[in-house]
Amino acid sequence: AHQRKRIAELLANLLRDLAEIGAAVGGSELDFKLNVDTVGKLEEEFTVARLHISKIKSEVKNVVQRCSSLESANIDA
């Protein structure tokens, strides 16, 4: 029981960090709330985390492409 509670706390911290990263990349900060007492929802929370990681990954790729385009345009100018 203690180990599950600890895992839930770690997941909550991870989700909070992901929300901050997502906000920094350009999205709106998402409100992740994980009730440590309901560890039965961990699988659902991991699925949500994976979806947000995919979204953040896509946003980062777009930013890198934009930066490359701007650098090329700046060199040509």
UniProtKB/TrEMBL annotation:
Domain of life of the native organism: Eukaryota
Protein name: Kinesin heavy chain e4
Record organism: Idmon distanti
Lineage summary: Eukaryota, Metazoa, Ecdysozoa, Arthropoda, Hexapoda
